Amino acid sequence: MTLQGPLRGAALLLSAALLLVGCAGPSGAPRATTKPVPFVQKQLSPEQRQAAFEQVFNTIQAQYFDPNHNGVDWVAVGARYRAELLRGGVGETQFWRGLNRMAGELKDAHTSVRSPLEVNAITQQRGNFGLSLMPLDGHWVVRGLSGASQAALLGVRPGHRVLSIDGQPTQAWWQATSAQVRGSSTDRSNFTLVSRELNQRPVGSTLTLGLQRPDGSLYSVTLRQDPQSRVQSLLRSHQLASNLGYLRFVAFLEPLMPEMADTLQRLSSTQGLVLDLRGNPGGSFKMAVQLMGWLLRSGGPVGTVITRDHKRLTAAGSDKDITPDLQVTLQARPLTMPMAVLVDENSASAAELLAAVLQDHGRARVFGNTSCGCLLGVRVAGEVLPGGGRLQVSLFDMRIGNPPGKRIEGVGVVPDQPIPVTLDALRSQADPVYEAAQAWLLQGAPGASPH
What's the pLDDT at 449? Predict the structure, then answer.
C-alpha cells in the first residue's frame, strides 16, 4: 500500500494489499477541479528493461531481510527470469508481470514489483467490482459484495452459486488464474491475488457471471467496470443501545489517528468493544503501535523486530536510523473494557500485528477465521524503477511476545473462537462472527483477563 503526503519518505509500512484511497489533505481542503490526464504506459527500451531487471534483482539480493531469501536460490531465480524477460518479443505488460512473479518466488506478500501503470493510474483508470467468492460445500458461491456494486443492483446476493466466469466454469477459471499470479506468503494471500484479478479489471471492461439462486433458477449478469469513487468511508464506529462499542476502519492510515483518538474516547464508557479488522489490509506500523497504547493495559516491549543480520535501518540517502521497535507507550487514559477482535483471511499485516499483540497479552478474544499470515515491513515509497515502476522489499520481520516470540508471517493470527463460513449464514445475510463476539461481551466476557 502506498500512502501519500505526510507519510512519504522514511516511514515504514506493513501491508499486504494495494489500497487506493482518495481523501482530502490534512487541512480538509477540497481537491483541485482540473481534470487529471490518464497515464499512458510507455514502451521501455532494451537498455531500460535491463536496468529495471538488474535493479530488482540486485536490491532484493542485497537488502531482503532474510539473507537466505526464504530458502530460495535467488541467483538461480534471477538467471531463469533474465532469460525469460530480456529476450525479444516480450510485451510491456508481460515484462512487468514477470518482474512481479520473480519477486513472488520468495513467497512473500510484501516484496513486489508494480508496473508504471499500477503506480501512476489516476482514479478514473481504476475500478473494483466489489465481489468476494469462495468454495463452499463443493460449489463456488458469492461470499459477499459491496452494497453499492453493480452486482448488488442486478440481484446478486451472498450464497448464490457462481457457475461460470466469462464463459468458463468457475473452478477452471480460478485454477487458470491461480497459475498466473505471483507467489505469496500463504494460500490465503494467493487467494486474495486471484480475487484481485477478478475484481480490478481495466475501466470499461466487462465481467460476465453465470449464477444460480437458492431455488435452482439460473441467471447471468454482465458487469461493466466503472471508475472507483474518490469518496470512501474510512472509519465506522457505533455506540450501540446494548452499551457495546463497535469500531471498523479501512486501513492503518496515520491521518486517521486524530479521529481515531476521538472515537476511542467516545467509546471508552462502553461495557465492551468489538474491533472489526476483517478485510483490513494493514498500513502504517506507527499507527498500529499507537493503537496498542490505547488498547493495552500496560506499556513496554510487546515483541521484537528482526532485520537482516540485525543491522539498523536507515533512511534512504542518509544515515538517519529509522529502525522500528515494538515498544508501546500507554495513553494517559487507555481503554480497559473487555475486547473482541474480528479477523478473516483478508486481515493482513498491521491488522495482524495489532490483533496478535492484543491476543498475546490476553487483552482481547479473537473471533473469525485465520488471518492472511502476511506480516513483514517495507518502506512506504519503495524504490522507483526505470519507466516509473516501483519495487518494495521486505526489510524486517517480527516476533510477537517475549523471546523467542511468535512469528505471524506465513502462519496468521489463529482465532480463539473460530467461526466457519456456512451457506445458510451467507444466504440469510447473517454475521455469525460478530454475533458470537457480541454474545461473549454481553455475557461479561467469561475468561477475559481481569483489569
Answer: 75
Give the contacts of 403 (CB within 8 A, at least 6 positions apart). Answer: 304
Strand-strand pairing, 272-276 and 244-249: parallel
Closest CA to 158 of 146, 142, 170: 142
Cβ 211 vs Cβ 160: under 8 Å: yes
Q: Are 95 and 85 in contact (CB under 8 A)?
A: yes
Q: What's the distance, CA 9 to chain centroid?
A: 21
Q: What are residue 52's phi and psi, to 5 degrees?
A: -65, -45
β pairing state of 364-368 and 339-343: parallel
Choose among 28, 65, 57: nearest CA to 399. 65
pLDDT of residue 160: 97
- pLDDT confidence of residue 451: 56
Q: Quick one: pLDDT at residue 33?
A: 54
Q: What domains can be seen in the chain, in order of their start residue?
A: 1-23+44-124+232-451 (3.90.226.10), 127-224 (2.30.42.10)
- Residues of the chain falling short of pLDDT 70: 1-34, 147-148, 229-233, 450-451
33-47 pLDDT tens trace: 567 888 888 899 999
Question: 397 with 405: CB under 8 angstroms?
Answer: no
Q: How many CB atoms lie within 10 A of CB 80?
A: 13
Give backbone dihedrals phi and psi of 238, rounded to 5 degrees, phi first. Answer: -145, 145
What are the pLDDT digits (tens) for 401-443? Answer: 999 999 999 999 999 999 999 999 999 989 999 999 999 999 9
d(CA 105, CA 111): 10
Cβ contact 333:268 at 8 Å: yes
A 10 A CB-CB count for 379 gives 20
Strand order across the 12-15 sheet: 282-284, 12-15, 378-379
CA neighbor of 14 nearest in space, from 189, 253, 366, 330: 253
Q: Within 13 Å, how many C-alpha atoms sit on residue 125's CB side? A: 14
